[in-house]
Predict the 3D structure of the following.
Amino acid sequence: MTVTVKSKMPIVVPPSVRRLAGFKSGDKLEFKVSGGIVSILPKRDSGDTLTPEEAKVVRRGEAQLKRGDSKPWRAVKHALAR
């Protein structure tokens, strides 16, 4: 399917393409561009992914576990709240 890009109009995903892709009203979409190719992917709920800071805390905790270190839950809760 081909659509025409216009200067003052957003690009519209045709209903047949949305249906084939399984996109529904209200879905969030993520656009990725690489080498001139645009991919449109369903955006996962933000609750499913960690922020970079949260990921850093998790990696630190995993490293502590591997070393055999442990912390009381209060300290872990405090670190996550930052």
Q: What stands out?
A: The mean pLDDT is 84. The beta strands are 29-34, 37-42. The first helix runs from residue 15 to 21.
